[in-house]
Specification:
With 366 residues, the protein is α/β, with parallel strands linked by helices. It has 13 helices and 16 strands. It binds flavin mononucleotide.
Length: 366
Amino acid sequence: MDLSITVNGMKFPNPFVLGSGPPGTNARVLAKSFDAGWGGAVAKTVSLESAKVVNVVPRYGKLRSRSTGEVIGFENIELISDRPIDVWLDEFRQVKKEYPNHILIASIMEEYEKSRWQELTRMVQDTGVDGFELNFSCPHGMTERKMGSEMGEHPDLTQEVTSWVTEVAKIPVWAKMTPNITNIREPAQAAIAGGAKGISAINTILSVIGVDLDTLRPMPTVEGYCVPGGYSAQAVRPIALRMVSQLALAIPDDVSISGIGGIENSHDALEFMLLGASTVQICTGVMLQGVKMVDELKEGVEKFMTDKGFNSVQEIVGKSLPYFSTHMDLVQKMKAAKRSKAGEASRDNEWAQKDITEKTAELTSN
Ligand SMILES: Cc1cc2nc3c(=O)[nH]c(=O)nc-3n(C[C@H](O)[C@H](O)[C@H](O)COP(=O)(O)O)c2cc1C
């Protein structure tokens, strides 16, 4: 079955895309994922000066189900890529050469300086990547350098920085939103005003995964200390679904949405698509299950399309959006349904209470 979808002119062999993070760490893992059947990938976020990026260990934490031990939530305090930009430029070139039909999106982030953003955009664009995703959303670490969600939390900065990039970009630009904001529509609309053709949502939610009751230290603990990090995996999915639906109802039709947050199987992916996402990105799911999870994603979506009579992936996108309403409207609909049920019941009673010949006569015109 053809699962391809064209988004902002980019033809994805299927809508399943690796989310920026460990699944897109280098050319080797990207190649392995494309071989496994992923339609596209957003590589790990890159910047001009990798020497400024120093990661800590441990940097992950899990929230498990009390009854089964299954991982429900995942926290990380990982920074963007700590690999030199020159290495990345070579690898972007290499991946695009070997996989011309897969979509490779470069995630970029820089300090608040026009020349730096434009230099990075030009360098990366020259490698032949298909599109950009602007990381306005990493909620930890990078914020201390006024990067990531420091930009995404301020719509004026989001618009300005997006416009710096779109001024020099010849390929589609997506802006990745932080959920750590009251109204996600505001930074999204700002990015669109700055020239973004797509919105990716969501990045991680600020969190503290727990506290060690022996040492009294919050986690993840590095040399006895901690910073809040980004929460992902299935626990965040309902919040991501709400935000994606809010975006889909608010932004122009020609702006695409890439849905992200807690997707672990085809059921989850379909929910995002039905609420307006043309592609879905998966990061923690791949870290926990491996790249082979794409097999189930494909099979599940194919089965759904056959069962429901969808002829293309595009037809699924946004199909459930018309069923959102206002609370007041729900109340009115409920009252109307009650009245109609009561009407039916009283009609039924009439038949039961009257002799059938009497009722027949009543309904006869001659
Ligand atoms: C360990 C880890 C590292 C991540 N690194 C990045 C990154 O470099 N750039 C980025 O835009 N998002 C990054 N993310 C965020 C993910 O791309 C994604 O938006 C988020 O985790 C929610 O999706 P998920 O539940 O499928 O992981 C990272 C997430 C994790 C768990």
